[in-house]
Design brief:
503 residues, mainly alpha, 19 helices
């Protein structure tokens, strides 16, 4: 493997260097950097032209300018832009904003898209499969600028207005209950009577829940509370155990339930610690949770069930911690909403200017600015991950080794998770590796609609002013990410499919 990595790295470096030559040539010839200076009055024109010429070394041959840039870039200095600002500083700010904007959207699209694709493949040609296919194609065909504008109108302006008097109408209640009932009926496996029963139960439960939330004005001062956190943590323990090993194995279920119980205890025990924590405190608590749950799974799983008990306990513990995190953040919603004049969902920018609040209020501020652009990006990316996963799963399910696994007596869960899904993720790995470089380049349309100054803005500014320095900084990040993550994808292939050998 080390030889493979060294060989790929050697080739990638030369490909990347060759790419920088091409990009530098294009960046320096895309537009005249002196165009704006030539439009200045006579008194200032000559000095402005001389200053820009000296700053960008326009008097030197193109090859000399490239090697000067390359030598500075190898030392970590990306130079100054046409106005004299440090490109390193501009890149750091733009890259941080881009990570905030696209990282969550990419993770959500991958996780949710793969999940929906797996379910659709397992229920091929069912109502659920056809419904997800229809929705996926709609999302894939939506113009991003149009989707972003609609989200700003309905999920920001109208929703913020509605929060002033959060009363749910009967029309909305019946509509959401009907949608929830249809989804529940499509998910369940069984005859028509079973589906109708689930449809009716889900419809009634959703309608009652929405009416209770409306009567109590929960949206004005939301929060989960101890009862909801405890019940959801226990349900999560059953769900994670079912996915990992099945509920018929008692040790993994016991380990997951103990992890859920520890989370319920932590709800009260960590009251003072979570009053106004820092991000480092939250990260340390997450690591501590994973370590404790690892020990619980190790002890209760024993030699026979340890392999299943450990992940069941860790997933449940982290899930319970996430519930506590969400409850604390929602409890601060009323105070945050009042501090931003009742407009918690923002339509522009990455943060509220000069806003100071607690850790939880700061988190709500970040969420309010990220919600709409993240949703816009997820709607478009979700479709491709769903379709790729479904197609890959269906192809793998027809392979001979899958039929052999079933013939040997392996349970359906083991066949799907250990054979079908594992090998079906290979095309998704390729798609994800490519997407990383693309999203790090910035969602230019999304940034423009929602007023974010990130990687896309850095690139457009360089193109508009004819400044090659920001363009090259943009390419260093995106091109480098594509090279690195494609090499990582090749390595991951060997872990997903034992038939692949990197040697």
């Amino acid at each position: 493997m080390l030889v493979f990595i060294a060989r790929r790295l050697f080739v990638s470096i030369w490909v990347f260097l060759a790419s920088t030559v091409v990009i530098f040539f294009l960046a320096t010839n895309i537009r005249d950097p002196l165009a704006q200076a030539r439009q200045l009055p006579d008194a200032a024109r000559e000095s402005a032209i001389a200053e820009i010429t000296e700053r960008l070394h326009l008097g030197d041959p193109l090859l000399v300018r490239y090697f000067r840039w390359l030598g500075d870039a190898l030392t970590g200095d990306l130079g100054n832009n046409i106005t004299g600002q440090s490109v390193n500083t501009l890149l750091e700010e733009a890259f941080t904003a881009t990570l905030q904007l696209v990282l969550g959207a990419m993770v959500l699209a991958i996780v949710v898209g793969i999940t929906i694709g797996v379910i659709a493949a397992l229920r091929q040609y069912s109502a659920l499969d056809q419904g997800t296919t229809f929705i996926a194609f709609i999302c894939f065909s939506l113009p991003l600028f149009w989707t972003a504008t609609l989200l700003k109108d309905f999920l920001a302006i109208d929703f913020n207005d509605w929060l002033a008097e959060p009363e749910i109408s009967w029309t909305f209640t019946l509509g959401m209950a009907l949608i929830a009932g249809l989804i529940g009926g499509a998910l369940v496996v069984g005859d028509r009577r079973t589906r109708l029963t689930v449809f009716g139960g889900t419809l009634l439960l959703t309608a009652v829940l929405l009416r209770v939330l409306s009567a109590t004005e929960w949206f004005a001062d939301p929060g989960l509370g101890f009862v909801i956190v405890a019940l959801t943590a226990v349900a999560g323990a059953a769900g994670f155990t079912s996915l990992v090993s099945g509920l018929e194995w008692k040790p993994p279920l016991q380990a997951a339930l103990v992890a859920a119980g520890l989370g319920i205890v932590a709800y009260f025990a960590l009251g003072e610690v979570l009053e106004d924590p820092t991000l480092v405190t939250i990260a340390l608590l997450a690591l501590l949770t994973a370590g404790i749950c690892f020990g619980v799974g190790w002890y209760l799983g024993g030699d026979l069930y340890r392999r299943s008990a450990i992940p069941a306990a860790i997933f449940t513990g982290l899930f319970a911690g996430a519930l506590i995190f969400v409850d604390r953040m929602l409890s601060s919603f009323e105070g945050y909403s009042e501090s931003v004049a009742g407009r918690p969902i923002s339509t522009i920018g990455a943060e509220t200017p000069n806003y100071e609040g607690t850790f939880w209020e700061g988190g709500l501020d970040s969420f309010g600015h990220l919600a709409l652009p993240t949703l816009a990006l997820v709607l478009l990316s979700l479709a491709q991950y769903t379709r790729y996963t479904r197609a890959s799963m269906l192809e793998v399910m027809n392979q001979d080794y899958v039929r052999t696994a079933r013939a040997k007596g392996l349970g359906e869960r083991a066949v799907i998770t250990r054979h079908v899904l594992r090998n079906g993720l290979i095309p998704i790995t390729t798609l994800g590796a490519y997407d990383v470089g693309v999203v790090l380049g910035g969602a230019v349309v999304t940034e423009t609609v929602f007023g974010w100054r990130a990687m896309g803005t850095l690139l457009l500014t360089g193109i508009d002013t004819g400044d090659p320095m920001p363009i090259m900084a943009f390419f260093l990040v995106t091109g480098g990410a594509i090279v690195v993550f494609n090499m990582l994808a090749d390595i991951i292939y060997a872990f997903l499919d034992p038939r692949i050998r990197l040697s």
